[in-house]
């Protein structure tokens, strides 16, 4: 799955997005690819609840939506 994530401005933001996605999906944070330049987050598989993942990212200060 790939998400467009607004609000990332630094490496700390990248790590925060990785942690949120890992917590919501059960995927190890190291397996979540986050690209600051393209404002995208990518990981294998689909989250159990995409809406819940988007809400968790919003609570962490990021706006996200599925790409594609």
UniProtKB/TrEMBL annotation:
The lineage of its organism: Bacteria, Deltaproteobacteria, Bradymonadales, Microvenatoraceae, Microvenator. The keyword Hydrolase does not apply. InterPro entries: Heavy-metal-associated_CS, HMA_dom, HMA_dom_sf. Keywords: Metal-binding. GO terms for molecular function: metal ion binding. This is Heavy-metal-associated domain-containing protein. SUPFAM superfamilies: HMA, heavy metal-associated domain. It comes from the Bacteria. Residues 1-65 form the HMA domain.
């Amino acid at each position: 799955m790939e998400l467009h994530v607004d609000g990332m401005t630094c490496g700390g933001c990248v790590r925060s997005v990785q942690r949120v996605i890992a917590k919501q999906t059960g995927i190890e944070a190291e397996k979540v690819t986050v690209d600051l330049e393209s404002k995208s987050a990518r990981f294998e598989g689909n989250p159990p609840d995409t809406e819940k993942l988007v809400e968790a990212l919003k609570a962490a200060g990021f706006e996200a939506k599925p790409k594609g």
